Structure formats: C-alpha cells, structure tokens
C-alpha cells in the first residue's frame, strides 16, 4: 500500500513539474525591430575589389573551395576584418571554446569600427552561455538573435520535452556574409573541431567562398530567417540578465582573449591559400550559382513535402544527372525512398558513389544505427558504398602530421563532374524532413572535375569500400600502406561500440 502511494506521489510530482515547465513560454509574438540587408556597399574595399572580378566575368559568381580548417577560419576572420558596413552570420551552433572566443573578438572589433553585425544562432545545441551573447548584444552595432529558442525558466531539459513538437525543429543553416559582397557557405559551425583546432582528431569539413550575384541570394535567405517570428532577440529570452558592463568585462578578459585571438588569428591569416587568393595567385572559379534553401516557415508547419523546398529542388537536380553522382554526407540514412531513388539512378546507367562515416568515425552512434540496416540494400541497388577509415587523417595531409583520428563532416554532392551542391544538408530524415537547411548549387566544371579527382584519391587512401561476400555478409575492403585489407566486421570498433550501435537501433528513424 505504501509502495503504491509512493508511486502515485512520484507521478503526481512529475506531472506538476511538467505542467510548470509547460507554462514556461517563449515570447514569439512580442514585437521586435525588423532590418534589411545593407545593399549600398559597392564603395567598400570588398565591393571595389569584387567589382573588378565581376566586370571581367559578367553575370557569373566567383567560387573558391575551403577544404582545410585553418583556411576556412582565416577566410571568415579576413572578411570580418575587411568589412566596412555589415556582417551577417547564421549558424546552427557555437561553443565556448577557442573558436568561439576568436569569433566573438572578431565581431566586437568589427563593430567597434562601425560595422553592423547581425548574428543569428540556432538555440538547442549552442553551448556558449547566454551571458556571452547578452554582452555582445550590448554593443550598439551588434544584435544577437536565437532561432526557435526554448524557455530559460525552470529546467531546460523539461522545457525541451514539454515543447518537443516545436523545439525539435531546428535551423541548421550556415553562412557568413560581409558587406553583402562575399560569403562563406558550407558545413562548418563555430567550434574548435570545425577549424582543426583539436589535437585529438581531425574533423574533415568543407566550405566555399562565394562572391558576385549569388551573395544577394544568400543575403535574402538570411534576411528571411532574421525577421521571422521565431528569431528572438537574446535579451527577450535570456534569464541571467546581469547588470554587467560590456566594457568592464572586455577589460577583464582582454589580455587572455587577445592572446588567444592574436595567436589563432595570426595562424589563420598566415594561410598560404589566403595569401594566394588576395595576391591574385589563386583565381576564383567563375560559375553560375544559386541558393537552394528551405523557408523558415518549414519549422512551424507540420512535416510535409510541401515545405521541403530544398529537398524538392535538389531531387530535380539529381534526377537530371546523366552519368555520375558522388554523395558525401557524414550522416546517411536513405530510408526505403532513398534506396528506390538510388535504384532508379543506377537502372539508368549512372555511376552512384556514396561516402559516409564508419561506425568508428561517426560521432553520432544512433545515426549510424539507422544507416547500417540499409548498407546491403544500397550495395544491391548498385551504389558504390564507402565508409571513412577512422585512423586515416594523415591520408588527407601532405605532411602526414597531426592526429590520426578522423571524422567526416563534409556535405557535398558532385553531379556529372560539372555541378556541385555544398551546404548544411545531411542525407538523413532530420535534415530533409525536420530541420531547415540551405546550400549553393554551383555550375563550375573545372572546379568540380578537380574535386572529383581529389575524392577518388581519398576513396582509395582513406576509406573502406563495402561489398557482399558469397554468403551475403558485409566486407570492408581497403588498401592500407600498400596492403589489401579485408575486414568482416565494423573496422576499428570494440565489442562495446558495436553493442551500442546494435542497441541504438531502437531510436526512431524519423528523428535521425
């Protein structure tokens, strides 16, 4: 009897907590100022330099690949330093680490020069504290907004659970735009691992620098999210609104932050690639380019194909392919519909290559569990399926230095060695159905041919090709240090990791 009473009390208390959490709301309906892209930037340094290029390449955008983390960080810092009128940033997450400190300092220094900074962050996986954003937001030239935040009142976990239907829908877009003249778009978030600042492992990622007409489309997409009802000013939602002075806090941390900033900044701007681009030794690739993006309203409507704008547009492009498709995605959960699409493509005689993480290299085990059950189907449908070798980071570097551990975070599609799609999209249900995503579709045969050749090299040196033996069992084939190797279970994994992957098959595929 006592036990039943205790159980009843437990559930009653839990119910009260849930009700209290449910009462914690976010002010989505509270009025906020709107703002527009600053378009009169032709007279800026970036505007003048880029005008010379666009005059020589009428109607085309300029594209340059950013494959190395330090080059990608250096480009963003260089744009922040060169900006004269505006910086617009849109990211899925930011961490309280070296990269976060460097970005914060770069934005503050730009704002000190009079640059207007608009910083839009998704909320749930951002681990940098609200205090940092509140302090940044004090600057008269900086405004920080969180997209689709959960309430700060009470327990954040309960708030997420009790508002799950709304909180589960995330803005995954990633772009960095200076003076409406130049943008960096790709897969990187703001954290150390995305810029190769981690000593323990390499996070292989990819962005592009874009200039020219496509930047206006990137700015338009950013502006739509920035002015949306679910883009909430940080001071509307943050709970710890301490009465701190931005200048006092900056003074307190100036020495430490400037040391970090100067060290990383110097390393980033000493990138040979940046020097070659700015000196004209490396040329931008001329291209027709356009933005493919979901609309922000996708995140406040029921999941339906009607709102999957990016997926629909990209499917049309994929179906128009004539000879070859190379998909690179860290998280690949094709589902039955994806397998049918693959079969359709191979039936038409197309070569279809898929590169994704192995179990050992994947940083999200549940996603691997969702993917693993489709491996045989993908192979039987005619796809060339490859998984990253978790100890092959040295194969990506000419000098062979640094950590060996490797995780893939690159999101690319190469089409007919002519078209490139690069952006935030993973090939999984979460990206396609649930989140908002964006990227660039680029028509640049010279660039894509070069990239395809690099990918072929990486497949040979840093990946396993999966095959089926005569008993319909999976095999992993690789050439390692000149030796042909065949594995018959997920390579470089422990019994415990394989058990976790098996157990996590209980996770609903629709949420992966």
Number of self-contained structural domains: 2
Radius of gyration: 24 Å
CATH class of the largest domain: Alpha Beta
Q: Helix amount, in percent? A: 25-40%
Number of helices: 18
Which stretches are poorly predicted, pLDDT < 50 over at least 5 residues? Answer: 9-14, 16-23
Task: Just name the CATH architecture of the largest domain.
Answer: 2-Layer Sandwich
Mean pLDDT: 91
How many strand units? 20
Major sheet attributes: 18 strands, mixed
Distance between the termini: 43 Å
The CATH H-level homologous superfamily of the largest domain: Endonuclease Chain A
Q: The CATH topology of the largest domain is what? A: Endonuclease, Chain A
Outline:
By secondary structure, the protein is an alpha+beta fold. It is built from 18 helices and 20 strands.
Overview of this protein structure:
With about 500 residues, this protein is an alpha+beta fold. It has helices at about 1-20, 45-55, 70-80, 100-110, 130-140, 155-160, 165, 215-225, 235, 245-270, 270-280, 310-320, 335-345, 365-370, 375-380, 430-435, 445-460, 495-505, and strands at about 60-65, 85-90, 115-120, 140-145, 175-180, 180-185, 200-205, 205-210, 230-235, 285-295, 325-330, 350-355, 385-390, 405-410, 410-415, 420-425, 440-445, 465-470, 475-480, 485. It has 2 domains: about 40-280, Endonuclease, Chain A (2-Layer Sandwich), CATH 3.30.870.10; about 295-510, 2-Layer Sandwich (Endonuclease, Chain A), CATH 3.30.870.10. The chain is about 40% helix and about 20% strand. It has an 18-stranded mixed sheet, with helices on both faces. Strands 7-14 form a two-stranded parallel sheet. Strand 2, helix 4 (about 100-110) and strand 3 form a beta-alpha-beta unit.
């Amino acid at each position: 009897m006592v036990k039943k009473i205790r159980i009843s009390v437990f559930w009653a208390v839990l119910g009260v907590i849930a009700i209290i959490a449910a009462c914690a709301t976010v002010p989505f309906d509270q009025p906020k100022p709107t703002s527009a892209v600053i378009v009169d930037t032709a007279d800026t340094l970036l505007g003048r330099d880029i005008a010379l290029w666009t005059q020589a390449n009428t109607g085309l955008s300029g594209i340059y690949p950013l494959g190395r983390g330090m080059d990608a960080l250096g480009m963003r810092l260089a744009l922040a330093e060169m900006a004269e009128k505006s910086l617009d940033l849109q990211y899925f997450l930011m961490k309280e680490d070296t990269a976060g400190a460097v970005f914060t300092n770069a934005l503050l220094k730009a704002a000190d020069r009079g640059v207007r900074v608009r910083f839009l962050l998704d909320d749930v996986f951002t681990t940098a504290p609200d205090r940092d954003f509140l302090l940044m937001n004090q600057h008269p030239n900086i405004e920080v907004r969180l997209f689709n935040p959960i309430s700060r009142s009470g327990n954040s976990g309960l708030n997420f659970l009790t508002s799950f239907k709304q909180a589960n829908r995330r803005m995954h877009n990633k772009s960095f735009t200076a003076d409406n003249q130049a943008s960096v778009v790709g897969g990187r978030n703001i954290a150390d691992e995305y810029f190769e600042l981690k000593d323990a492992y390499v996070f292989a990622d990819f962005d592009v620098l874009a200039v020219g007409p496509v930047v206006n489309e990137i700015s338009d997409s950013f502006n739509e999210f920035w002015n949306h009802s679910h883009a909430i000013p940080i001071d509307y939602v943050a709970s710890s609104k301490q009465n701190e002075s931005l200048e006092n806090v900056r003074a307190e941390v100036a020495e430490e932050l400037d040391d970090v900033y100067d060290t990383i900044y110097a390393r980033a701007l000493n990138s040979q690639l940046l020097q070659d681009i700015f000196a004209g030794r490396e040329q931008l690739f001329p291209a027709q380019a356009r933005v493919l993006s979901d609309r922000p309203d996708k995140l406040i409507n029921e999941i339906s194909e009607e709102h999957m704008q990016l997926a629909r547009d990209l499917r049309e492009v994929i179906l128009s392919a004539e000879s070859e498709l190379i998909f690179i995605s860290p998280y690949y959960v094709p589902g039955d519909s994806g397998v049918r699409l693959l079969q359709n493509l191979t039936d038409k005689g197309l070569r279809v290559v898929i590169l994704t993480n192995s179990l050992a290299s994947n940083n999200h085990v549940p996603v691997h569990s969702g993917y693993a059950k489709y491996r045989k189907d993908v192979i039987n449908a005619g796809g060339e399926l490859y998984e990253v070798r978790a100890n092959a980071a040295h194969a990506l570097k000419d000098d062979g230095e640094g950590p060996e551990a490797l995780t893939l975070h690159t999101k690319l599609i190469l089409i007919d060695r002519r078209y490139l799609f690069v952006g935030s999209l993973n090939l999984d249900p979460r990206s396609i159905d649930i989140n908002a995503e964006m990227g660039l579709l680029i028509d640049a045969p010279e660039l894509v041919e070069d990239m395809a050749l690099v990918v072929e090299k990486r497949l040979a040196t840093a990946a396993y090709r999966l095959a089926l033996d005569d008993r319909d069992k999976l095999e992993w084939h690789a050439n390692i240090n000149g030796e042909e190797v065949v594995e018959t279970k997920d390579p470089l994994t422990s019994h415990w990791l394989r058990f976790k992957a098996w157990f996590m098959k209980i996770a609903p595929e629709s949420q992966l």
